[in-house]
Amino acid sequence: MNVAMFGAGLMGRPMAQRLKDAGHSVTVYNRTISKVADLPQAGIPITDRPEGAIREAECLLLMLADARAIRDVLLTSSARQELAGRTVIQMGTISPRESQSLQSEIHAAGGGYLEAPVLGSITEVHAGKLIVMVGASPDQFRRWAGILQSFSTEPRLIGPVGKAAALKLALNHFIAAEMAAFALSLGLIERQDVPIETFMQVLRASALYAPTYDKKLPRLLKRDYTNPNFSTRHMLKDVNLVLQEAGKLGLTTSSLDGVPGLLEKTIERGLGDEDYSALYETVNPSQDVKR
């Protein structure tokens, strides 16, 4: 199948490679062309115009930063004219309302639309073990299951468009909340001179444990946030989406209200493009740690 991948960042790049390895013909469009200049050497052609990528593809996969980026790329007057007869699969994190709005506009342009946000990081992309949550009709799900199985052995149909987007926000809330909580607890342990391994042993044996704690612990101990799986800047975007959507639904969000401020201060420290676990630098600044 001819597939166009829009967005070749941390996740989009290895996803394009997975598609190629599965036998699909893949063309990549990235807004910053210099970041994908090496892809042709790996057998993945690139284009500097979204219209060209749309025109040659049956299916468009989106791993763009947010809904605004999607609109800037796909819904310009020139790009919109090329959408008829193509299906757009939105795989990034946007709100349910944004996804439903995109569905309406793409349908009006004669295209098809479904959402398939993913849970997992670069390691899971390479292994084909992402969790793929699909918002679509049953017919659409069956039609595009082959593409989605490039990333997961078992994509899951959640419901119509908007339902998978809501589930993805609910899950990303855990990512932010758990990291902020772990950073605070670890900082408390460090400043009170309790052995960190003792803390971790007790934590691992309890119902409080989550695997992400061990996954992120080496970064925090070394204060090394390079080679991110998910950036601080994108985590802030997702937390704000959770807060906005929850607020519209009448939910109390005080348990999460402090996290955007932590992420904003972390970005101010110049860590916006580093791994989101860098919020530890804001929670537990290294210069203040007791030795």
**CA-to-CA gap between the ends?**
59 Å
The total beta strand count reads 9
Overall pLDDT score: 95
Sheet with the most strands, sense and barrel status: 6 strands, parallel
List the strand order in the largest sheet.
3-2-1-4-5-6
CATH class of the largest domain: Alpha Beta
- The gross shape turns out to be globular
The CATH topology of the largest domain is what?
Rossmann fold
Quaternary structure:
single chain
Proportion of beta-strand residues: 5-15%
Number of helices: 13
- Helix/strand order: EHEEHEHHEHEEHEHEHHHHHH
CATH architecture of the largest domain: 3-Layer(aba) Sandwich
The level of helicity is 40-55%
CATH level 4 superfamily of the largest domain: NAD(P)-binding Rossmann-like Domain
Radius of gyration: 20 Å
Low-confidence stretches: none
Give the number of domains: 2
How would you portray this structure in words?
Helix 8 (163-191) packs across helix 11 (232-248) and helix 11 packs antiparallel against helix 12. The protein has two domains: 2-160, NAD(P)-binding Rossmann-like Domain (Rossmann fold, 3-Layer(aba) Sandwich), CATH 3.40.50; 165-288, N-(1-d-carboxylethyl)-l-norvaline Dehydrogenase, domain 2 (Orthogonal Bundle), CATH 1.10.1040. 49% of the residues lie in helices and 12% in strands. The strands form two sheets. Strands 3-2-1-4-5-6 form a six-stranded parallel sheet, with helices on both faces. The protein is an alpha/beta fold and 291 residues long. Helix 1 (12-21) links the parallel strand 1 and strand 2. It is built from 13 helices and nine strands.
